[in-house]
Amino acid sequence: MDSEKNSSVDEAQVDYNRKYTYSDYLEWDDDVRYELIDGVPYALSAPTVRHQEMLGHVFAQLYNFLKGKQCKVYLAPFDVRLNAATLDDTVVQPDIVVICDNSIMMKTGCKGGPDMAIEILSPSTSHMDRNIKFIKYLQAGVREYWVIDPDTKTLVVHILRDGDYVARIYIDEDAIPVHVLDGCVIDLTEVFV
Predict the structure, then answer these.
(1) Where residue 4 falls among pLDDT bands split at 50, 70, 90?
(2) Domain span holding position 84
(3) C-alpha to C-alpha distance for 188 and 154, rounded to whole angstroms
(4) pLDDT score recorded for residue 16
(5) Which end of the chain is less crowded, N or C, counting CB atoms within 10 A of the terminal residue's CB?
């Protein structure tokens, strides 16, 4: 999702000398979407049409594969409380998540890391998605993390192995196996149109 550091919550609500938690996050204006990373709020801007089209193509392929199966796929806005069992100060909204364990589900998202998270980059989110969220997803044990770059027409797939991510880069003509979904393949020719 597009985000901008600290152009966050209504300025009257925010004290940047303190850190926030999920309970604070729930009190913020519903007309503006936020992520919370280590207690710091980040406002999310509206995604571009190109972003939404790519999101739709990936989601459709995952959704069609998962029909009738235990695992489910969800689109943002979807609250992912990565450290809900501890500090509960990190709530992200990946573009797409896949969840196979229904016990982590809650009304507006999930508590803990999903099985898979997908982010589509934009100029304002590139650093956040490639670095900050990368670390947060790794720490939360997200088994598969995809970073889609519309500008270079590439996809970096991070697979969790022995507590670290192993990365592989794909290009716009590849068919990508989804490691957490045996038999699922995403056709990038349908994504990078």
Answers:
(1) very low
(2) 48-190
(3) 9
(4) 60
(5) C
Pairing verdict, β 109-111 and 79-81:
parallel
| Residue 78 phi, psi dihedral angles, 5° rounding | -155, 110
Residue 55 lies in a domain: yes
SS3 of 92-124: ECCCEEEECCHHHEECCEEECCCCEEEEECCCC
Which CATH number do you get for residue 157?
A: 3.90.1570.10
> Count of domains in the chain?
1
Give yes or no for a contact between 120 and 146, defined as CB atoms under 8 angstroms apart.
Answer: no
Nearest to 150 by CA among 126, 166, 127, 174: 126
DSSP summary character for residue 20: -
Strand partners, 177: 185
